[in-house]
TrEMBL record:
One of its GO terms (molecular function) is ATP binding. The keyword Nucleotide-binding applies. Keywords: ATP-binding, Nucleotide-binding, Transport. Belongs to the ABC transporter superfamily. This is ABC transporter ATP-binding protein. The keyword ATP-binding applies. Residues 30-247 form the ABC transporter domain. InterPro entries: AAA+_ATPase, ABC_transporter-like_ATP-bd, ABC_transpr_TagH-like, Bact_Polysacc_Export_ATP-bd, P-loop_NTPase.
């Protein structure tokens, strides 16, 4: 069964103030990399973040996305998640897709920790019954105790990250999308977070992970796609692609 099937998809963004001088000079530079196009009078300029990408993901696929800054990795994750729809081509999505692209997204400052467990849980596609059954376990993982009854505007950054991470990793995804998530917090939390993250990734049927950390890609992914200028330059078994990538980048 294909969870994700992308057929010749492009994602484009119109640049409305392309006549502005400083933006224009930046656009000229990007144009040389082939991702900018404009009409004949230069008024309607578009950035092509993804260009004719085809890809299918099945049960067991753990796909790494690699490539330089601006290659299109985040755009591809957002296309898979449904944040973007293709301007050309098509995508079909099946199963529960959980994007962990911004772990603090959907948190409300004036709500308590417990209320945020519910809010973000719903946003990530959990049912109210599922949230209730996981509430205690999420609370315990955060170690925030009585703080969970206070509005999260009273939390430190580290406390917010603990809460957001605990909620995000309590879901049961079919397709898990990750954009360089872990790495913040104190040392003991990072250890705990890694263990929980490993459990989450084992529950997911498909993973797509964008990273600049080659060791992380090797550890997690069995397939890798190398993106360049919005196109898939190479895709295949991780070690084969990484060797080619490391030769030139
Ligand atoms: N909302 C947007 N509006 C206009 N251009 C965008 C937008 N989002 C991305 N782009 C452009 O699309 C291209 C791909 O960006 P993307 O963020 O997908 O790259 P990336 O591979 O994730 O880069 P990085 O490794 O730096 O995070 C870049 O040229 C970027 O400037």
């Amino acid at each position: 069964m294909n969870y994700i099937k992308i057929n010749n998809a492009s994602v484009e963004f119109p640049i409305f103030d392309a006549q502005n001088r400083s933006i224009k000079s930046e656009i000229m530079k990007l144009g040389k990399r082939g991702i900018i196009s404009s009409d004949s009078n230069g008024k309607h300029v578009t950035i092509k973040s993804l260009d004719s990408v085809s890809l299918s993901l099945e049960h067991g696929d753990k796909l790494g996305l690699i490539g330089n800054n601006g290659a299109g990795k985040s755009t591809l994750l957002k296309l898979i998640s449904g944040i973007y729809e293709p301007s050309k081509g098509s995508i079909t999505r099946k199963g529960k897709i959980v994007p962990l692209l911004d772990i603090a997204l959907g948190m409300d400052d004036d709500s308590t920790g417990y209320q945020n467990i519910k809010l973000r849980g719903l946003l990530l596609g959990m049912t109210p019954a599922e949230i209730d059954s996981k509430r205690l376990e999420i609370a315990e993982f955060t170690e925030l105790e009585d703080y969970l009854n206070l509005p999260i505007r009273t939390y430190s950054m580290g406390m917010r990250i603990r809460l957001a991470f605990a909620i995000s990793t309590a879901v049961d995804p079919d397709v898990l999308l990750l954009d360089e998530v872990i790495g913040t917090g104190d040392a003991s939390f990072i250890q705990k977070a890694e263990k929980r993250f490993n459990e989450l990734k084992d529950r997911a049927k498909v993973i797509v992970l964008a990273s600049h950390d080659n060791a992380v890609i090797r550890r997690i992914c069995n397939k890798t796609a190398w993106l360049e200028g919005g196109k898939i330059k190479m895709i295949g078994e991780t070690e084969t692609i990484m060797r080619e990538y490391e030769k030139c980048c």
